[in-house]
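Reposting from the mailing list since nobody answered there.

I have sequence plus structure tokens for a pair of proteins and want to know whether others read the tokens the same way I do. The first protein:
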Amino acid sequence: MVHLVLCDSSQVQGLEIHGLDLPDSFGELITSGILVILLQPVYNMVSHFIQARLGIMSKFVPKVS
């Protein structure tokens, strides 16, 4: 929120550094929040898939004692 008050759009200023682009308007902030909410189930599905895949693979790898 502080960054939105400190800067104008499309310039690196405020709390930004090179390589880190923070939202410059409330519209960008709201859009980012909506994208995070919508992509959480996708992340969870991929995470569960990878964990299940690694669990299956560990059954085929012999354990070293």
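The second protein, same order (residues first, tokens after):
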Amino acid sequence: MTPDQITRLSGYKAPGPDSICNIVFKECTNTLLPYLLHLFNAVFSHQVYFQPWRCFSTVVLRKPGKPNYSVPKAFCPIALLNTTGKLL
């Protein structure tokens, strides 16, 4: 993992179930990078994926300007993933 990968995250997107915003990782990259490196290496070497990282929340948003909100096409589902899982 490189600092470049973290800085490419969009800073102010909505967080997932872990409530950790991308901006936290971006602002604390130098501090977190050594810990994340060991953590992610352990995930690969032990072949175990932390179960809460698999969790996500789905938020359904109304599409603006639709004349009828009683049809499914008038809505847009958004999946909010855990940030740490996205980095992995």
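Reply #1 (J.P.):
I read it the same way you do. The mean pLDDT is 90.
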